[in-house]
């Protein structure tokens, strides 16, 4: 019979943990709370945890669902906003990069881990050396390349540098394929499968965990991308949420930013990743174990 | 019975590698070579690049703005990495000794999932001089208002603090994952011997975590040197270049003044620093694996 005795040290530790959680979550609460506040109230109603006159008007106007006059009346600058469109662009951008990049890097990782061909280790070393090249270094020439190709302000130009590969994904997936047991594959060879058949029917299905891990990580990073899409995808048509937020801030008067609108747009930019956290949070958290203790 | 004659998958292999090799050649290899070339030319996006030797580099070394950028970046790295690592270590230890809750871990991860642009906006609002929540709070205890982004002394600590807020949870979870690898019986044994939490932290957690800690530290350092988004949204390098970090300096040179050659030279400098750090990271990666295996 053990009875839990009160332990002051442990209680204090829990208090500290609670403070950490509040500090983590409160800014998001305040963002949503501001997004639900009418712009006219912003000077008077900014101390309570809930808005006095909750409204959805800020969301409606940043989604482009109100007329210009209504948007102006609700505190907007009158500039056209279409966050539904920007969200869609971001989803397409992330989906394309995550899906295609994961597949291609898995193919390469498998070849580096399992196939036998002359020059394999040398080619792998060269590809991995790209890990040492920081993004800013290739950013300037890639910008000029995309400009010369005539891909400015197109989705193709935006996804081009990352859709085919990142050195990290190749490295990560190769490491995983190296650790797969060989016997299943060898049995499949005896059954008359070629390299492609083994990869597609055996190696890929056995690697669901790592594939999801790398796919999710790629999605999150792509969702956060700012500088590159800012340089090559400024046009309204292909604008991502992050770029649109920056433009929205610039359009809004310096002395008196459209805080309620900005916070509504910010909330929209957080919503998809929040859903990701709710549905695959466990996997995301576990993926940190995975990459942290390679 | 494995294959009796030596296998050669040459044809299949190159097909498997094709997309990645194209991506590598076109968007990594070629631009890297081109970047080095630009750094010794006067390219400005309108002219044809002409070779100018080491001119960009000598100019860079005499450019006060460049040295300011290096200094400001270093200041940022010290503030950000210092606070972030200490806090993350503390939070990871708390988690490790208190709970295995996945919900708690997911909550800590939340800021990491959010774009830096959103985080910048969020804190611009929270820290707004007149209406921001934090200044209201300071007001009620008789302080402030503080111009977090507009005051030259405060601007950089503010930006560093924001990014610490955004990345501490993520860093803590990486450290926590490392702590989970430490055998539990060590703590049980120490506890029977009457060791307190602080002693266990000093004698067990810290020494056994060292390889992971070193790795996490270097990875954060590499990220920290590349601070851009938050500054591009909040301070735009100001007030008076107080937050004009090296990434922002390169960005301005390239895309505002179109000094492509000059910007490329500055990027070579940054690449050298980051290259050294990455080399260290790869060594640590190898070391940490053999240590914890």
TrEMBL record, chain A:
Gene3D superfamilies: MetI-like (1.10.3720.10). The keyword GTP-binding does not apply. It is found in: Cell membrane. Its main location: membrane. GO terms for biological process: transmembrane transport. The chain crosses the membrane at residues 12-32, 90-110, 122-144, 156-177, 198-223, 259-280. Pfam families: BPD_transp_1 (PF00528). Keywords: Cell membrane, Membrane, Transmembrane, Transmembrane helix, Transport. Residues 87-280 form the ABC transmembrane type-1 domain. It is a multi-pass membrane protein. It comes from the Bacteria. GO terms for cellular component: plasma membrane. Belongs to the binding-protein-dependent transport system permease family. This is Sugar ABC transporter permease.
Automatic annotation (TrEMBL), chain B:
It comes from Catellatospora coxensis. PROSITE patterns: ABC_TM1 (PS50928). One of its GO terms (biological process) is transmembrane transport. GO terms for cellular component: plasma membrane. This is Sugar ABC transporter permease. The chain crosses the membrane at residues 12-30, 74-95, 102-126, 165-187, 208-228, 257-280. Its main location: membrane. Residues 66-281 form the ABC transmembrane type-1 domain. Coiled coil: none annotated.
